[in-house]
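tool=predict chain=A
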Amino acid sequence: MTTWPPRLLVVGLGNLPYPNTRHSVGHVIVDALAARFGVHMSMNRSVGGFIGHSDVLFSDDIVSLTLFKPKPLMNIAGPSVASALRNTVKLPTSMVVVHDALDRKVKVLSVKLGGSANGHNGVRSVIDALGANADFYRFRIGIGRDRAVDPAEYVLSKMPPDELLHWSGVGLDRVCSELGKIASRIRAT
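tool=predict ok
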């Protein structure tokens, strides 16, 4: 059993030029985590994105938390994410990638460890950059799907205010709960 604080890297996938869009919900959640825990995010050219670190409390567990938002567009963010992983927690099983999921209901968080990219190009880029290693956690954030709108147009549309509020309130509570569970698993190894 580990006695040091478990280390977690939380990566929010998104597109910096398109803030607060459905496709950038990973950035929205990383920003909300940074605000909740007082984590200062700053640009780090060596890893290619905005990064911040702090020891935080999830339930009764202190966790060494690093937050990361890659600067490259989502579909080519893999090398930047791999660099952040190498420079922080080292192990893919200590990384959580937060991304949008068209096939999930709005405001639903689905947790997955490993597996395929399931058609998500940002996740595919991360897997490819890790040498086909898919052994990291994914927080698939449901953004729903409006079948009357082209998917590319839909994912780049602004998130409605109620969704933004959800991911800084009740939704963020759920994210923190799931991060606490992962940290407990890491501590137990």
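The mean pLDDT is 95. Residues 170-188 form the longest helix (19 residues).
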